[in-house]
């Protein structure tokens, strides 16, 4: 008996071939490290999206800091709301350029899974404890490749894995190569839309938190991008679409085929990003708790290095099966913590309890 859903995936794949740009990534050409039977009703990229969405690390993002540690208010961004904003902006760009929204969505939802608790302060603290740089994009890839599903990983497609790993950017220019450039235009979209999202929402949060006033923003950048949050976001997104109209297949692509922004908008965007580094990320009262975060992460790291038997059993098993140094399991454990869970573990270990009869 033929079921009603028979052929749905094939229809999705045929629709992509008929509707999308010839420069798009097509799900019927997706590759996985471990071959598996296809879904009857979802494309490969839709399947990856769902695997990320239903994963535990994705759910933990709601309790991980974006910029402000334990902010007094319900409207500040968390790592989860940042992820959702990135993904939606990237889908808008992908649709306009006739590229694959499903691939963009999967990369967008997974790109920040590896962030530590307490935002960049936690990442810096863990780097200091390790004695070398901790990179959240590398940890994101480790989560989907190794740690999820009790050590078997999510077996995502190569295109999604590449986009997750290559979304990080150099500080000087959001278009510069740091870990390389994604081979898919969809992966390149997420990299740029990640910056578009956090530049705009971090300004919004900094103004809400009293760290900045609208008049503090660099005048030359604002004259190009716009006076309000909405205007700036619209300028950046529309410029990204207009400047890369070749991606629709309407004209020959550049060599190499890499996405960018128009020179004026790119210059203004980078200036606004550098302003945030100087005034918010590294030089404001938003960083007042960084010393506490560093102390906490350092003590947690030392404790579990000295007492690895207290690590979760699943992480120890993965560590032993892969013959990795115990530091790898310690870093996996601390990096995976939410802000509040890291604080709970720290308090359980180091804050004296009051005994009562």
Can you tag this structure with a few keywords?
357 residues, 16 helices, mainly alpha
Q: Explain this structure to me?
A:
The chain is an all-alpha fold. The chain is 57% helix and 0% strand. The protein contains 16 helices and no strands. Helix 4 (79-96) runs antiparallel to helix 5 (101-110), helix 4 (79-96) crosses helix 11 and helix 6 (119-130) packs antiparallel against helix 15 (326-336). It is globular.
Give the helix proportion (percent range).
55-70%
Molecular shape = globular
H and E string? HHHHHHHHHHHHHHHH
Low-confidence stretches: none
Measured between the Cα atoms of the first and last residue, the distance is 70 Å
The major pleated sheet works out as:
none
Using only C-alpha atoms, the radius of gyration works out to 22 Å
In total, the number of strands is: 0
From the helix content, strand content and strand pairing, which structural class follows? mainly alpha
Strand residues, percent: under 5%
Instruction: Give the mean pLDDT.
Output: 93
Number of helices: 16
